[in-house]
Amino acid sequence: MDELQHRGLIFGASITVTTQNIREVSSDAFLGKLSAKGCKAAIFVEYVPVTDDSMELAPGDEEREYLKDRIDCLRKEHTEMVYISFPGDEKDTGGCVAAGRGFFHINSHGGAEPCPFSPFSDINVRDTSLRETINSGLFRELRDGGYLLEDHIGGCTLYEKRNQVEKIIAEGKAQNNIR
Ligand code: SF4
Predict the structure, then answer these.
(1) Residue of 47, 84, 97, 139 with the most ligand 1 atoms within 8 Å of its CB, for mutation
(2) 3-state secondary structure of 25
């Protein structure tokens, strides 16, 4: 951050929020330190459990409400930075914004995934255009099949549906002979 600030570059910080660190990472003290380092955006990303053992770290309704209130307050009182809550801000957009509904993610091998938290892919941007990618079989099924709009517990809609996502890919591969 010192180097980025020294070079006059704009940067933000992605902050993983858990049930254990939520108060600290949304505190004036922590964010003030980031701001002093030249950070212009704080992107709060709710922890998404990758094993059943770590479910307790995923923010629930109480923590989400807390973070929302904190962010409302920060947006009014600390305008020196931009604050984004992910997926907390999804409430305002009516559900999960993965799979091209709002964005999609390209992994380091070129595989287009619904979201970094749903690391499944049936198409590679090395083989096709972004326009075709956003309409891949997997993305279309997730958008049109209503998978993104349902309520969910824990941090992530598609994590809860990971078995269904894998099934869509398996069926698509069988139909389209996608590698
Ligand atoms: S896949 Fe999960 S983390 Fe990604 S946008 Fe949807 S709900 Fe949020």
Answers:
(1) 97
(2) helix
